[in-house]
Design goal:
By secondary structure, the protein is α/β, with parallel strands linked by helices. The chain has two domains: about 20-245 and about 445-455, Aldehyde Dehydrogenase, Chain A, domain 1 (3-Layer(aba) Sandwich); about 250-435, Aldehyde Dehydrogenase, Chain A, domain 2, CATH 3.40.309.10. The protein has helices at about 40-60, 60-75, 80-90, 95-115, 150-165, 175-190, 205-210, 225-235, 260-270, 290-305, 315-330, 365, 380-390, 405-415, 450-455, 485-490; strands spanning about 20-25, 30-35, 120-125, 130-135, 140-145, 165-170, 195-200, 215-220, 240-245, 250, 280-285, 335-340, 355, 375-380, 395, 395-400, 420, 435-440, 440, 455-465. The strands form five sheets. A seven-stranded mixed beta sheet has the order 12-13-14-11-10-16-17, with helices on both faces. The chain has a six-stranded mixed beta sheet with strand order 7-6-5-8-9-19, with helices on both faces. Helix 2 crosses helix 6 and helix 3 (about 80-90) packs antiparallel against helix 6 (about 175-190).
Length: about 500
Protein backbone atom coordinates (compact mmCIF):
# COMPACT_ATOMS: atom_id res chain seq x y z
CA UNK A 1 0.00 0.00 0.00
CA UNK A 2 1.01 3.59 -0.41
CA UNK A 3 1.06 5.93 2.53
CA UNK A 4 -2.02 6.19 4.70
CA UNK A 5 -3.01 9.81 5.24
CA UNK A 6 -6.80 9.60 5.60
CA UNK A 7 -9.13 8.09 8.20
CA UNK A 8 -10.38 5.47 5.74
CA UNK A 9 -7.78 2.90 4.61
CA UNK A 10 -7.91 1.34 1.15
CA UNK A 11 -10.00 -1.78 0.96
CA UNK A 12 -8.24 -5.14 0.97
CA UNK A 13 -7.93 -6.34 -2.59
CA UNK A 14 -6.17 -8.65 -5.00
CA UNK A 15 -3.11 -7.01 -6.49
CA UNK A 16 -1.49 -7.50 -9.87
CA UNK A 17 2.00 -6.23 -9.04
CA UNK A 18 4.24 -6.67 -5.98
CA UNK A 19 2.17 -7.12 -2.86
CA UNK A 20 1.66 -8.84 0.48
CA UNK A 21 -0.62 -11.85 0.41
CA UNK A 22 -2.10 -12.94 3.75
CA UNK A 23 -3.66 -16.30 4.54
CA UNK A 24 -5.62 -17.31 7.62
CA UNK A 25 -3.20 -19.09 9.99
CA UNK A 26 -6.06 -21.23 11.30
CA UNK A 27 -7.38 -22.50 7.97
CA UNK A 28 -4.75 -21.61 5.39
CA UNK A 29 -7.39 -19.83 3.34
CA UNK A 30 -6.61 -16.66 1.37
CA UNK A 31 -7.62 -13.47 3.18
CA UNK A 32 -6.39 -10.52 1.14
CA UNK A 33 -3.50 -8.87 -0.64
CA UNK A 34 -2.06 -5.44 0.04
CA UNK A 35 0.14 -3.57 -2.47
CA UNK A 36 3.63 -2.62 -1.34
CA UNK A 37 4.94 0.91 -1.46
CA UNK A 38 7.46 1.43 -4.24
CA UNK A 39 10.56 3.64 -4.14
CA UNK A 40 8.65 6.71 -5.34
CA UNK A 41 5.96 6.29 -2.69
CA UNK A 42 8.51 5.72 0.07
CA UNK A 43 10.49 8.80 -0.98
CA UNK A 44 7.30 10.87 -1.16
CA UNK A 45 6.41 9.81 2.36
CA UNK A 46 9.84 10.86 3.61
CA UNK A 47 9.53 14.21 1.84
CA UNK A 48 6.11 14.83 3.41
CA UNK A 49 7.44 13.93 6.86
CA UNK A 50 10.45 16.17 6.40
CA UNK A 51 8.27 19.10 5.32
CA UNK A 52 6.00 18.64 8.33
CA UNK A 53 8.81 18.22 10.85
CA UNK A 54 9.55 21.87 11.63
CA UNK A 55 5.90 22.75 12.12
CA UNK A 56 5.21 19.79 14.43
CA UNK A 57 8.36 20.48 16.45
CA UNK A 58 7.11 24.04 17.02
CA UNK A 59 3.82 22.82 18.48
CA UNK A 60 3.76 23.15 22.27
CA UNK A 61 4.31 19.98 24.32
CA UNK A 62 0.90 20.25 25.98
CA UNK A 63 -0.81 20.47 22.60
CA UNK A 64 1.14 17.44 21.35
CA UNK A 65 0.02 15.58 24.48
CA UNK A 66 -3.60 16.54 23.77
CA UNK A 67 -3.29 15.14 20.25
CA UNK A 68 -1.99 11.88 21.69
CA UNK A 69 -5.00 11.66 24.02
CA UNK A 70 -7.23 12.12 21.01
CA UNK A 71 -5.39 9.27 19.29
CA UNK A 72 -5.91 7.08 22.35
CA UNK A 73 -9.65 7.74 22.29
CA UNK A 74 -9.83 6.91 18.58
CA UNK A 75 -7.90 3.68 19.14
CA UNK A 76 -10.19 2.66 21.98
CA UNK A 77 -13.23 3.24 19.77
CA UNK A 78 -11.78 0.98 17.06
CA UNK A 79 -10.58 -1.75 19.43
CA UNK A 80 -12.92 -4.54 18.33
CA UNK A 81 -12.29 -3.99 14.62
CA UNK A 82 -8.54 -3.98 15.15
CA UNK A 83 -8.65 -7.04 17.42
CA UNK A 84 -10.58 -8.88 14.74
CA UNK A 85 -7.98 -8.02 12.12
CA UNK A 86 -5.17 -9.01 14.48
CA UNK A 87 -6.80 -12.37 15.09
CA UNK A 88 -7.45 -13.05 11.42
CA UNK A 89 -4.00 -12.06 10.14
CA UNK A 90 -1.81 -13.52 12.90
CA UNK A 91 -4.00 -16.14 14.60
CA UNK A 92 -3.86 -14.42 17.96
CA UNK A 93 -6.94 -15.20 20.07
CA UNK A 94 -9.44 -12.34 19.96
CA UNK A 95 -9.41 -11.61 23.70
CA UNK A 96 -5.59 -11.53 23.76
CA UNK A 97 -5.62 -9.20 20.75
CA UNK A 98 -8.15 -6.99 22.53
CA UNK A 99 -5.88 -6.89 25.59
CA UNK A 100 -2.98 -5.82 23.37
CA UNK A 101 -5.03 -2.94 22.00
CA UNK A 102 -6.03 -1.90 25.51
CA UNK A 103 -2.33 -1.84 26.35
CA UNK A 104 -1.78 0.38 23.32
CA UNK A 105 -4.46 2.80 24.50
CA UNK A 106 -2.87 2.92 27.95
CA UNK A 107 0.57 3.51 26.45
CA UNK A 108 -0.64 6.44 24.36
CA UNK A 109 -2.28 7.95 27.44
CA UNK A 110 0.91 7.51 29.48
CA UNK A 111 3.05 9.28 26.88
CA UNK A 112 0.41 12.00 26.61
CA UNK A 113 1.00 12.61 30.32
CA UNK A 114 4.77 12.27 30.62
CA UNK A 115 5.68 13.74 27.22
CA UNK A 116 4.94 17.36 28.19
CA UNK A 117 6.91 16.79 31.42
CA UNK A 118 10.03 15.70 29.55
CA UNK A 119 12.61 18.37 30.31
CA UNK A 120 16.25 19.22 30.43
CA UNK A 121 18.49 19.78 33.44
CA UNK A 122 19.94 22.81 35.11
CA UNK A 123 23.74 22.84 35.27
CA UNK A 124 25.93 24.27 38.00
CA UNK A 125 28.05 27.08 36.61
CA UNK A 126 28.89 30.68 37.34
CA UNK A 127 26.43 32.61 39.53
CA UNK A 128 26.37 35.33 36.90
CA UNK A 129 25.18 32.96 34.14
CA UNK A 130 22.55 30.32 33.45
CA UNK A 131 23.45 26.85 32.20
CA UNK A 132 20.92 24.19 31.26
CA UNK A 133 20.02 21.57 28.67
CA UNK A 134 17.16 21.54 26.19
CA UNK A 135 15.63 18.37 24.67
CA UNK A 136 14.80 18.77 20.98
CA UNK A 137 13.13 16.34 18.56
CA UNK A 138 15.46 14.45 16.26
CA UNK A 139 13.30 15.04 13.18
CA UNK A 140 11.94 12.22 11.00
CA UNK A 141 11.54 8.80 12.64
CA UNK A 142 11.10 5.46 10.87
CA UNK A 143 9.37 2.87 13.08
CA UNK A 144 9.50 -0.81 12.10
CA UNK A 145 7.15 -2.87 14.27
CA UNK A 146 6.42 -6.62 14.65
CA UNK A 147 3.35 -8.80 14.24
CA UNK A 148 3.33 -10.65 17.58
CA UNK A 149 1.94 -7.68 19.58
CA UNK A 150 1.45 -5.23 16.74
CA UNK A 151 -0.75 -2.54 18.29
CA UNK A 152 0.83 -2.25 21.73
CA UNK A 153 4.39 -2.08 20.36
CA UNK A 154 3.47 0.38 17.62
CA UNK A 155 1.66 2.66 20.07
CA UNK A 156 4.68 2.77 22.36
CA UNK A 157 7.02 3.90 19.61
CA UNK A 158 4.52 6.20 17.89
CA UNK A 159 3.49 7.79 21.17
CA UNK A 160 7.03 8.56 22.31
CA UNK A 161 8.09 9.80 18.88
CA UNK A 162 5.22 12.21 18.17
CA UNK A 163 4.87 13.59 21.71
CA UNK A 164 8.52 14.68 21.61
CA UNK A 165 7.94 16.51 18.32
CA UNK A 166 9.10 14.04 15.67
CA UNK A 167 7.24 13.12 12.51
CA UNK A 168 6.77 9.41 11.92
CA UNK A 169 6.85 6.87 9.10
CA UNK A 170 5.43 3.63 10.46
CA UNK A 171 6.04 0.37 8.60
CA UNK A 172 3.96 -2.39 10.21
CA UNK A 173 4.97 -6.01 9.80
CA UNK A 174 4.30 -7.57 6.42
CA UNK A 175 2.54 -10.37 8.32
CA UNK A 176 -0.28 -8.06 9.43
CA UNK A 177 -0.41 -5.28 6.81
CA UNK A 178 -4.17 -4.77 6.84
CA UNK A 179 -4.12 -4.27 10.59
CA UNK A 180 -1.27 -1.79 10.13
CA UNK A 181 -3.22 0.18 7.54
CA UNK A 182 -6.34 0.45 9.70
CA UNK A 183 -4.29 1.33 12.79
CA UNK A 184 -2.61 4.11 10.84
CA UNK A 185 -5.95 5.39 9.52
CA UNK A 186 -7.35 5.49 13.07
CA UNK A 187 -4.40 7.29 14.64
CA UNK A 188 -3.74 9.85 11.88
CA UNK A 189 -7.08 11.54 12.61
CA UNK A 190 -5.49 13.02 15.74
CA UNK A 191 -2.55 14.76 14.06
CA UNK A 192 -1.87 17.38 11.39
CA UNK A 193 -1.08 16.08 7.89
CA UNK A 194 2.38 14.56 7.56
CA UNK A 195 2.96 13.90 11.26
CA UNK A 196 2.10 10.19 11.04
CA UNK A 197 2.14 8.09 7.87
CA UNK A 198 1.84 4.34 7.35
CA UNK A 199 3.98 2.71 4.67
CA UNK A 200 3.20 -0.93 3.90
CA UNK A 201 5.65 -3.45 2.54
CA UNK A 202 8.15 -6.17 3.25
CA UNK A 203 11.88 -6.19 3.84
CA UNK A 204 12.58 -4.23 0.65
CA UNK A 205 10.43 -1.31 1.77
CA UNK A 206 12.07 -1.41 5.18
CA UNK A 207 15.47 -1.20 3.52
CA UNK A 208 14.37 1.81 1.46
CA UNK A 209 13.19 3.65 4.58
CA UNK A 210 16.21 2.86 6.75
CA UNK A 211 18.72 3.86 4.09
CA UNK A 212 16.99 7.10 3.12
CA UNK A 213 18.78 9.38 5.57
CA UNK A 214 16.10 9.78 8.25
CA UNK A 215 17.02 10.96 11.73
CA UNK A 216 16.04 8.03 13.93
CA UNK A 217 15.17 4.37 13.28
CA UNK A 218 13.34 2.26 15.87
CA UNK A 219 13.03 -1.47 15.22
CA UNK A 220 11.33 -4.25 17.18
CA UNK A 221 11.86 -7.59 15.49
CA UNK A 222 14.40 -10.25 14.69
CA UNK A 223 18.09 -9.93 15.52
CA UNK A 224 19.06 -10.62 11.92
CA UNK A 225 17.03 -7.66 10.68
CA UNK A 226 18.23 -5.54 13.59
CA UNK A 227 21.86 -6.11 12.66
CA UNK A 228 21.19 -4.89 9.10
CA UNK A 229 19.34 -1.84 10.42
CA UNK A 230 22.20 -1.01 12.77
CA UNK A 231 24.52 -1.09 9.77
CA UNK A 232 22.24 1.24 7.82
CA UNK A 233 22.16 3.66 10.73
CA UNK A 234 25.94 3.64 10.94
CA UNK A 235 26.12 4.59 7.26
CA UNK A 236 23.49 7.34 7.30
CA UNK A 237 24.07 8.72 10.79
CA UNK A 238 20.56 7.89 12.01
CA UNK A 239 20.10 7.16 15.70
CA UNK A 240 19.06 3.50 16.03
CA UNK A 241 16.91 1.93 18.75
CA UNK A 242 16.62 -1.87 18.62
CA UNK A 243 14.63 -4.33 20.70
CA UNK A 244 15.42 -7.59 18.96
CA UNK A 245 15.23 -11.32 19.53
CA UNK A 246 15.92 -13.25 22.68
CA UNK A 247 16.93 -16.70 23.81
CA UNK A 248 15.76 -16.11 27.36
CA UNK A 249 16.76 -18.60 30.06
CA UNK A 250 14.78 -19.80 33.05
CA UNK A 251 16.77 -20.98 36.09
CA UNK A 252 14.92 -23.29 38.51
CA UNK A 253 16.65 -23.60 41.89
CA UNK A 254 16.43 -26.64 44.16
CA UNK A 255 14.41 -24.96 46.92
CA UNK A 256 11.24 -24.06 44.98
CA UNK A 257 7.98 -25.97 44.55
CA UNK A 258 8.52 -27.94 41.30
CA UNK A 259 4.83 -27.84 40.35
CA UNK A 260 4.68 -24.06 40.75
CA UNK A 261 7.96 -23.76 38.83
CA UNK A 262 6.51 -25.85 36.00
CA UNK A 263 3.48 -23.56 35.87
CA UNK A 264 5.78 -20.55 35.53
CA UNK A 265 7.80 -22.33 32.83
CA UNK A 266 4.63 -23.16 30.89
CA UNK A 267 3.39 -19.59 31.07
CA UNK A 268 6.74 -18.34 29.82
CA UNK A 269 7.16 -20.90 27.03
CA UNK A 270 3.61 -21.37 25.73
CA UNK A 271 1.87 -17.97 26.08
CA UNK A 272 0.98 -16.54 22.66
CA UNK A 273 2.30 -19.87 21.33
CA UNK A 274 5.80 -18.82 22.34
CA UNK A 275 5.70 -15.85 19.95
CA UNK A 276 7.02 -13.33 22.48
CA UNK A 277 10.48 -11.77 22.47
CA UNK A 278 10.83 -12.44 26.19
CA UNK A 279 9.39 -15.96 26.09
CA UNK A 280 11.14 -18.70 28.07
CA UNK A 281 13.28 -20.49 25.49
CA UNK A 282 15.69 -22.63 27.55
CA UNK A 283 15.32 -24.04 31.04
CA UNK A 284 18.05 -25.04 33.53
CA UNK A 285 16.58 -27.03 36.42
CA UNK A 286 18.44 -28.27 39.49
CA UNK A 287 18.78 -32.04 39.54
CA UNK A 288 17.30 -32.25 43.06
CA UNK A 289 13.80 -31.39 41.74
CA UNK A 290 14.25 -32.14 38.03
CA UNK A 291 12.09 -35.29 37.88
CA UNK A 292 9.07 -33.65 39.55
CA UNK A 293 9.52 -30.44 37.58
CA UNK A 294 9.73 -32.21 34.21
CA UNK A 295 6.70 -34.36 34.97
CA UNK A 296 4.66 -31.29 35.92
CA UNK A 297 5.82 -29.39 32.83
CA UNK A 298 4.83 -32.30 30.60
CA UNK A 299 1.37 -32.23 32.20
CA UNK A 300 1.09 -28.47 31.60
CA UNK A 301 1.91 -28.90 27.91
CA UNK A 302 -0.45 -31.85 27.52
CA UNK A 303 -3.30 -29.88 29.09
CA UNK A 304 -2.83 -27.05 26.62
CA UNK A 305 -2.67 -29.43 23.67
CA UNK A 306 -5.77 -31.33 24.73
CA UNK A 307 -7.95 -28.31 25.52
CA UNK A 308 -7.05 -26.54 22.28
CA UNK A 309 -5.68 -23.42 23.99
CA UNK A 310 -2.52 -23.29 21.85
CA UNK A 311 -3.20 -20.80 19.04
CA UNK A 312 -1.64 -21.29 15.61
CA UNK A 313 1.68 -19.76 14.74
CA UNK A 314 1.52 -16.73 12.48
CA UNK A 315 2.18 -18.76 9.32
CA UNK A 316 3.60 -22.02 8.03
CA UNK A 317 6.95 -20.37 7.35
CA UNK A 318 7.45 -19.82 11.07
CA UNK A 319 6.10 -23.26 11.86
CA UNK A 320 8.66 -24.82 9.50
CA UNK A 321 11.42 -22.90 11.29
CA UNK A 322 10.24 -24.00 14.74
CA UNK A 323 9.89 -27.63 13.70
CA UNK A 324 13.32 -27.61 12.09
CA UNK A 325 14.87 -26.70 15.45
CA UNK A 326 12.85 -29.36 17.25
CA UNK A 327 13.77 -32.01 14.65
CA UNK A 328 17.45 -31.15 14.94
CA UNK A 329 17.28 -31.50 18.73
CA UNK A 330 15.58 -34.91 18.43
CA UNK A 331 18.20 -36.08 15.96
CA UNK A 332 20.93 -35.02 18.41
CA UNK A 333 19.48 -36.95 21.34
CA UNK A 334 16.74 -34.81 22.89
CA UNK A 335 13.51 -36.52 23.89
CA UNK A 336 10.05 -35.05 23.23
CA UNK A 337 7.77 -36.05 26.10
CA UNK A 338 4.95 -33.92 24.70
CA UNK A 339 4.41 -32.41 21.25
CA UNK A 340 7.20 -32.18 18.72
CA UNK A 341 5.07 -33.32 15.76
CA UNK A 342 3.45 -31.18 13.06
CA UNK A 343 -0.29 -31.81 13.37
CA UNK A 344 -2.45 -32.88 10.48
CA UNK A 345 -4.99 -30.49 9.04
CA UNK A 346 -5.02 -26.92 7.76
CA UNK A 347 -3.41 -23.86 9.27
CA UNK A 348 -0.12 -23.23 11.03
CA UNK A 349 -0.75 -24.99 14.34
CA UNK A 350 2.12 -26.42 16.38
CA UNK A 351 1.69 -28.19 19.71
CA UNK A 352 3.11 -27.16 23.07
CA UNK A 353 6.36 -29.14 23.12
CA UNK A 354 8.60 -30.26 25.99
CA UNK A 355 12.11 -31.42 25.09
CA UNK A 356 14.23 -33.17 27.72
CA UNK A 357 17.91 -34.12 27.73
CA UNK A 358 18.88 -31.06 25.70
CA UNK A 359 22.49 -30.00 25.21
CA UNK A 360 24.20 -26.75 24.32
CA UNK A 361 24.94 -28.08 20.83
CA UNK A 362 21.24 -27.80 19.93
CA UNK A 363 19.72 -24.73 18.30
CA UNK A 364 16.75 -24.84 20.70
CA UNK A 365 19.26 -23.92 23.42
CA UNK A 366 21.35 -21.39 21.48
CA UNK A 367 18.97 -19.64 19.05
CA UNK A 368 15.59 -17.97 19.28
CA UNK A 369 12.87 -20.53 18.51
CA UNK A 370 9.79 -18.27 18.71
CA UNK A 371 7.39 -21.14 19.14
CA UNK A 372 5.71 -23.13 21.96
CA UNK A 373 8.83 -25.15 22.82
CA UNK A 374 10.26 -25.68 26.32
CA UNK A 375 13.81 -27.04 26.07
CA UNK A 376 15.12 -28.45 29.37
CA UNK A 377 18.60 -29.18 30.67
CA UNK A 378 19.21 -30.66 34.13
CA UNK A 379 22.16 -29.17 36.06
CA UNK A 380 23.94 -30.25 39.26
CA UNK A 381 24.23 -26.83 40.93
CA UNK A 382 22.72 -23.35 40.89
CA UNK A 383 26.11 -21.98 39.87
CA UNK A 384 26.12 -24.22 36.79
CA UNK A 385 22.66 -23.03 35.88
CA UNK A 386 23.67 -19.39 36.27
CA UNK A 387 26.80 -19.85 34.16
CA UNK A 388 24.86 -21.53 31.33
CA UNK A 389 22.03 -19.00 31.53
CA UNK A 390 24.55 -16.19 31.06
CA UNK A 391 26.09 -17.71 27.95
CA UNK A 392 25.20 -17.03 24.33
CA UNK A 393 24.78 -14.11 21.94
CA UNK A 394 21.50 -12.79 23.28
CA UNK A 395 20.93 -10.47 26.23
CA UNK A 396 17.25 -9.59 26.43
CA UNK A 397 15.91 -11.03 29.71
CA UNK A 398 16.24 -13.91 32.16
CA UNK A 399 14.10 -15.39 34.94
CA UNK A 400 15.25 -17.05 38.16
CA UNK A 401 12.98 -19.07 40.46
CA UNK A 402 14.59 -19.37 43.89
CA UNK A 403 13.90 -18.98 47.60
CA UNK A 404 17.45 -17.93 48.41
CA UNK A 405 18.15 -14.23 48.77
CA UNK A 406 21.85 -14.99 48.27
CA UNK A 407 21.07 -16.64 44.94
CA UNK A 408 18.84 -13.71 43.99
CA UNK A 409 21.68 -11.26 44.50
CA UNK A 410 24.15 -13.51 42.73
CA UNK A 411 21.83 -13.82 39.71
CA UNK A 412 21.21 -10.08 39.46
CA UNK A 413 24.93 -9.41 39.44
CA UNK A 414 25.91 -12.23 37.09
CA UNK A 415 23.28 -12.31 34.33
CA UNK A 416 24.31 -10.16 31.31
CA UNK A 417 20.79 -9.18 30.24
CA UNK A 418 18.62 -6.08 30.16
CA UNK A 419 15.93 -7.47 32.48
CA UNK A 420 16.22 -9.92 35.39
CA UNK A 421 12.94 -11.34 36.72
CA UNK A 422 12.83 -13.14 40.06
CA UNK A 423 10.05 -15.65 40.77
CA UNK A 424 7.73 -14.42 38.01
CA UNK A 425 8.27 -14.94 34.28
CA UNK A 426 6.08 -12.03 33.22
CA UNK A 427 5.07 -8.84 35.00
CA UNK A 428 6.70 -5.73 36.38
CA UNK A 429 5.89 -2.13 37.11
CA UNK A 430 5.04 0.34 34.32
CA UNK A 431 8.03 2.21 32.97
CA UNK A 432 10.49 -0.61 33.53
CA UNK A 433 12.45 0.21 30.42
CA UNK A 434 15.54 -1.90 29.82
CA UNK A 435 18.61 -1.81 27.61
CA UNK A 436 19.01 -5.10 25.73
CA UNK A 437 22.51 -6.46 25.22
CA UNK A 438 24.34 -8.41 22.55
CA UNK A 439 22.32 -9.22 19.44
CA UNK A 440 19.13 -8.51 21.41
CA UNK A 441 19.46 -4.81 20.67
CA UNK A 442 20.50 -1.43 22.02
CA UNK A 443 18.84 1.61 23.53
CA UNK A 444 15.69 1.99 25.60
CA UNK A 445 12.64 0.60 23.85
CA UNK A 446 9.95 1.48 26.39
CA UNK A 447 9.24 3.66 29.40
CA UNK A 448 10.12 7.28 30.12
CA UNK A 449 13.66 6.75 28.79
CA UNK A 450 12.23 6.23 25.31
CA UNK A 451 11.54 9.97 25.26
CA UNK A 452 15.30 10.49 25.60
CA UNK A 453 15.92 8.19 22.63
CA UNK A 454 13.69 10.31 20.39
CA UNK A 455 15.31 13.60 21.39
CA UNK A 456 18.76 15.12 21.25
CA UNK A 457 20.23 17.37 23.94
CA UNK A 458 21.39 20.92 23.42
CA UNK A 459 23.47 22.61 26.13
CA UNK A 460 22.72 26.31 26.67
CA UNK A 461 25.01 28.83 28.40
CA UNK A 462 23.61 32.32 29.02
CA UNK A 463 26.04 34.88 30.46
CA UNK A 464 25.36 38.47 31.43
CA UNK A 465 26.92 41.07 29.12
CA UNK A 466 29.40 43.63 30.49
CA UNK A 467 27.71 46.10 32.85
CA UNK A 468 28.06 49.08 30.49
CA UNK A 469 25.98 47.29 27.87
CA UNK A 470 23.04 47.20 30.28
CA UNK A 471 22.56 50.97 30.10
CA UNK A 472 21.49 53.33 27.38
CA UNK A 473 24.27 55.47 25.84
CA UNK A 474 22.92 58.72 27.40
CA UNK A 475 22.41 57.19 30.82
CA UNK A 476 25.55 56.95 32.94
CA UNK A 477 26.13 53.75 34.79
CA UNK A 478 25.68 54.04 38.56
CA UNK A 479 28.74 54.18 40.72
CA UNK A 480 29.50 50.88 42.43
CA UNK A 481 28.41 50.78 46.09
CA UNK A 482 31.29 50.31 48.53
CA UNK A 483 31.06 47.16 50.60
CA UNK A 484 30.91 49.14 53.87
CA UNK A 485 27.95 51.18 52.65
CA UNK A 486 26.16 48.05 51.42
CA UNK A 487 26.56 46.49 54.86
CA UNK A 488 25.03 49.60 56.46
CA UNK A 489 22.02 49.40 54.09
CA UNK A 490 21.05 45.96 55.36
CA UNK A 491 21.09 46.88 59.09
CA UNK A 492 17.70 47.12 60.86
CA UNK A 493 16.97 50.03 63.22
CA UNK A 494 18.29 48.05 66.19
CA UNK A 495 21.62 47.51 64.47
CA UNK A 496 21.09 43.82 63.79
CA UNK A 497 21.73 42.51 60.29
CA UNK A 498 18.51 41.73 58.41
Amino acid sequence: MHTTATPTPPAARQVDGPGLTITDPRTGEYLWSIPEAGPDEANDAIRIARNAAAGWAAVGPAERGAALRKAARALDAAAEELAGLNSRETGRPFQEALAGIAAGVSTLEQYAEIGPLHRGHSLLGSRSASDYTVAEPRGVAVLLTPWNDPVAVACGLIGAAVVTGNTVLHKPSERCPRLGEVLGAVLTTAFPPGVLQTVSGGAGVGTLLTRAGVDVIAHVGSSASGTLIAGAGAQTGAHVIRENGGNDPLVVDRDVDPVWAAEQAAIGAFSNSGQICTAVERIYVHEAIAARFCSALEAEAALRNHNGSVAPLVDTRLRNSVHAQVSEALEQGARAVEGGVVPEGPGAFYPATVLLECTDAMQVMTEETFGPVAAVRVVPTFEDALRLAGSGRYGLAATVLTGSIAHVQKAIAALPVGTVKINEVFGGAPGGSAQPRGVSGEGFGYGPELLDEFTRVKVVHVAAPPSFALHLPDEPAPEPVPAEQMAEQVQDPNGSPQ
